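Re: weekly structure request thread

Next one in the queue (178 aa):
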Amino acid sequence: MATSIRVLHPITRLIIGGAQENTMLTAQLLRQEGWEVDIVSGPQTGSEGSLIESVQERGIPLVLEPTLVREVNPVKDLLAVWRLARLMRQGNYTIVHTHSSKAGIVGRWAPKLAGVPVIVHTVHGWGHHERQHPLIRAYYIWLEKLTLPITDKLIVVSSLNIDKGLADGIGKPENYVV
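Done, posted below.
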């Protein structure tokens, strides 16, 4: 009997938005094709509205991880890496495909620690920008550079994301796919 491929999609928040809807629809379509796909999200929502019920109504297994929060919080962030790694080991995932900036960092280190064979991240938009304090911006770029070597592929939703990543010294063109 062949083992099916198990995929986990970590995302920071299931608010109404492009990255979240993309994640939900990708999980739904892969499940319809016979893949075993789950989503893990932080519990926070926002004024944008929530997609938590939509994910559940579509029959997509969902884990709400309380330590996965949008704000930078070193204690919660380290705890999130540890708890996500445990979830990934228990779930015996083959692929972890992260979405959003926070889940994109903690959600790529967790599978590395858990021994997940394939780690992919979708850049729906970079977490760093020119309006941030220069030290904060530099820190976010440093985290992306630090995390890139454990990432099998960066998927971007626009070639402009590649241009920005390369301009900020994040990887080489071969690290990206639109």
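The radius of gyration is 16 Å. The helical segments are 18-32, 52-57, 74-91, 101-114, 134-147, 159-167.
Next request, please.
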